[in-house]
Amino acid sequence: MPTIIEPFRIHSVEPLRMSTAAERREAIVKAGYNLFSLRSEDVLIDLLTDSGTGAMSSEQWACVQRGDEAYAGSPSWYRFEAAVKELFPFAHVIPTHQGRAAEKILMAAIGGPGLVIPSNTHFDTTRANIEATGAEAVDLPIAEGLDPALEHPFKGNMDLGRLDALLSARRDDVPAVFVTITNNSGGGQPVSLENLRGVRALCDRHRVPLFLDACRFAENAWFIRERESGQGGRDVADIVREIAALADGMTMSAKKDGLANIGGWLAVRDDRLAARCRNLLILTEGFPTYGGLAGRDLDAIAQGLKEVVQHDYLRYRIRSTDYLGDGLHAAGIPVMRPSGGHAVYLDARALLPHIPPLQYPGQALAIALYEAGGIRSCEIGTVMFGRHPDGSETAAALDLVRLAIPRRTYTQSHIDYVVEVCTEVAARAGELRGYRIVDEPPALRHFTARFEPLAK
Ligand SMILES: *Cc1c(COP(=O)(O)O)cnc(C)c1O
């Protein structure tokens, strides 16, 4: 049958609080026009992020009951470690409370002033943790990745020519190369195995370690299975192990492809680096067999890692995201093509050409979607990336609005409603106004900045 159904049925439900447009206009003013500052009860369909917002399975909830809360050496820890190593056989697995804690520890160990860390595209917390050490974070996506309308199977790939040039010029300043799978900030687009092998070859040639930001490893592996020649018949778990074998370590947020509500880890091959990282871990996260997580969380992640590589789950997951992307595309709304694994990205710069990047077209569109339909999305553009450590501000490469799909959470009619709201807003795009920032912190400003609409 052509319809790919959810490979689960609903076991417990969370009511949504219906709201009116007038209530939402009041709420967004109070929030300083920042969607992160809304109360989530004032949101109808929450597509702010797919991070930690998914539904756990009945097996995962059973694992929560089984969690063992021993401070050191808990059975939950050993189940977690075994589940991670089943897919990522690195010698050292270091649990953290979420992905950015793994980044902070790793960057504290390898970063520092004068150094540079390239990536296909750094995620915002990765970039911030690199810059916090005084190092420079450089994005080297392929040119195709920067053209939102272009169809290409692996728009998350890294530009090997530019990586080679950077490593040739500054090899001694590069403590590691990062590859983000899938490329979240670049549209949730996958990286091919061929490209990963190419990055590995350059890292070998220049003797630089390769790290994965592996948050959506299963979605990326599914895309490899579907789109890369010669990969079609493979087991996703096998593809994941091949990806792991190409790297020297990884950072991970279990809130994504861990199918859990919290958690993460850092994994490395190198014994000395692992020892340094564990010492840092103890300062801020906790003992190395729990790393800021409860035993029940470790158990839920261990089970999530078994479920996330199941083909029925991934087939449904990728198709349900694409269902939204196809619906918007068919309605004539400019979206990043093809759909990402976890999200669909509206091209706000294309939809709102009358709003210049420094008046934040992405923010304007995100606010309009909230006011019109109670949809919470996330600006990924000049608000998120436009401000630099020296205080200057420039347009980001793209002004996108991300509609991130929580895992196993919303049904097809929720998504049909989202398409209807987007279509209604797009029909009156010319009326939308830009915004200015009235208050912002020095780093990661998108989380807490306050905005004001500009006069017509
Ligand atoms: C979410 C995410 C992170 C950070 O993980 P947290 O658990 O939110 O701290 C890092 N990189 C990518 C690509 C992400 O999507």
Question: Mind explaining what this structure looks like?
Answer:
- The strands form five sheets. The protein has a five-stranded mixed β-sheet with strand order 2-8-7-6-5, sandwiched between helices. A three-stranded antiparallel β-sheet has the order 9-12-11. Strands 1-10 form a two-stranded parallel sheet.
- Helix content is about 40%, strand content about 10%.
- The chain is globular.
- Helix 2 packs antiparallel against helix 11 (about 295-310) and helix 4 (about 100-110) runs parallel beside helix 5.
- It has 16 helices and 14 strands.
- With about 450 residues, it is an alpha/beta fold.
- The protein has helices at about 20-30, 60-65, 75-85, 100-110, 125-130, 160-170, 195-205, 215-225, 235-245, 270-285, 295-310, 310-330, 350, 360-375, 380-385, 410-425; strands spanning about 45, 90-95, 115-120, 135-140, 175-180, 210-215, 250-255, 265-270, 345, 375, 380, 400-405, 435-440, 450-455.
- The mean pLDDT is about 95.
- It has two domains: about 20-50 and about 310-455, Aspartate Aminotransferase, domain 1 (Alpha-Beta Complex), CATH 3.90.1150.10; about 60-305, Type I PLP-dependent aspartate aminotransferase-like (Major domain) (Aspartate Aminotransferase, domain 2, 3-Layer(aba) Sandwich).
- It binds pyridoxal-5'-phosphate.
- The site of pyridoxal-5'-phosphate has 15 residues, from helix 4 and helix 5.
